[in-house]
Amino acid sequence: MTVVHFYEKNSIVLSQLRHLIPSVGENIKVKGRKAKVLSVNKIDDNLVRVQLEIEQVAKKEPAKEETKKKKK
């Protein structure tokens, strides 16, 4: 079992104890978000650093509210 640290840019996203180490170019899900593995660096026998690119989710715009008051 190895400890896998997932990083996005320079910030740590997740640390996991895993049997399998992800490979470069693999699509994975981290915390419910889609990510692609950019690089895998093996630091020790039991420690691996994985660099990720997390897919940005486009936020939906709220419906525009009418600013005019209705006349009665």
Short description:
The protein has 72 residues and is an all-beta fold.
Number of strands: 5
Structural class: mainly beta
| Coarse shape | rod-shaped
How many domains? The number is: 1
List unreliable stretches of 5+ residues.
none
Describe the structure.
The chain is mainly β. It has one domain (2-54). The protein is 0% helix and 51% strand. It has no helices and five strands. It has strands at residues 2-8, 11-18, 27-30, 33-42, 47-54. Strand 4 (33-42) and strand 5 (47-54) form a beta hairpin.
Key features?
mainly beta
Q: What are the SSEs and their pairings?
A:
Elements: E1 2-8, E2 11-18, E3 27-30, E4 33-42, E5 47-54
Parallel strand pairs: 1-5
Antiparallel strand pairs: 1-2, 3-4, 4-5
